[in-house]
Amino acid sequence: MMTGPINGSPSSAVVLPARDDIRAILDSHLQRWKPEILDLSHSIHADPELGGEEFRAVKRVQRVLRKAGFTLDEKQPSQSTAFSARFGSGELVVALCVEYDALPAIGHACGHNINAASAVGAALALAAVAGQLDITVKVLGTPAEETTGGKVDLIDEGFFDDVSLAMMAHAAATDVVGGSSLAMGMWDVLFEGRPAHAAAAPAEGVNALDAMVIAQTAIALARQQLPAGSIVSLIVTEGGSAVNVIPERARANVEMRAPNIRILKTIQDKVRRCLEGGAHASGCTLQVTPSGNSYAELRQDAFLSQAYRDAMTARGRDVACSTDPVASTDMGNVSQLVPSIHPMVGYDVRGAAHHTAEFASFGASAGADQAVLDAAFGLAAAACAAAVNPAYRERLLRKTRT
Predict the structure, then answer these.
(1) CATH 3.40.630.10 location in the chain
(2) Model-level pTM?
(3) Number of Cα atoms under 13 Å in the Cβ half of residue 295
(4) Which CATH class is domain 2-181+295-401?
(5) What CATH number is given for 183-290 in this structure?
(6) Which residues of the chain does CATH 3.30.70.360 include?
(7) pLDDT digits (tens, 9 = 90+) for 225-247
(8) Predicted local distance difference test score (pLDDT) of residue 6
(9) Are the C-beta atoms of 284 and 278 separated by less than 8 Å?
């Protein structure tokens, strides 16, 4: 057994279970809830819903949480497929972020059913020790990670204000912790001109497609001067309706990624000038509308990462440590606010890449099921390690109190 001040105050000394005893409790509770956890993963996988439309997934998640004694907070997010629930009343608040959105046409090709089930599993396991460790387990349903970034909206609405640490795991082909992600911003672009007959009166028209071509060319030339690690992608979604009509409207989606949010702003300034150049040269008007929230780069906490890795090693997994950026996630914004982890949990996908139908086909496999349970254990064990480490716990609480 471990004895000591759980929050750094000598008057609050309590007897804490030893690490192995805590892990045994977590594992026992996961086994108890295994049918519900895996059924949750399978049902979300079989019934994919797009970001902002995950109504059935939310009901499934909440059903499991209520069965385990979690209660919905009195204040709920404004997003219709977001929610906040909790168990316990400890000062140290552990947030589990639950993703459940799918991709158009290819379903759960990013494995968010595994992300959701592992986060819920971790929450259920932590509920078993919440009283002993003086923690509150907070579960946040975070929609639309693939599109608008629901976590950023929850940050803006204050749902992370009382959080001491945040965590989730992400489906992958290999086990990795510590990695970063790229900051990202997306825009919807609209050029508007004036239509005219392309042969009889072309001089009377203002060609919106010309504006788009000029802007694309400027962006292509600007790539050489962009900071290292920058990525700019653009697709034209509308460029005219008939070949003999001067296009009055052209639309595009632009996606910009960068090593961090500071460099992202530099890229956005450059791309905006390229778009403005197309408008100026063609005589068109320009409208740029952010498509969802900008994503910050991910910062994974070193203490939590090592605690997660140690716990996963105990489960027989070989978890690599890496600082390399992988794609982009709104969990990056959370990690800028509170200590966080976002490890990748691996299972056999036969070499399939994320965001492919082939990757989605493995989402309810035996390997995926084991990944759900192992990740749930790793997350829960990492949270417990934070709760029983007096110095780290006090550091977390100091940030929350201020």
Answers:
(1) 2-181+295-401
(2) 0.92
(3) 31
(4) alpha beta
(5) 3.30.70.360
(6) 183-290
(7) 999 999 999 999 999 999 999 99
(8) 52
(9) yes
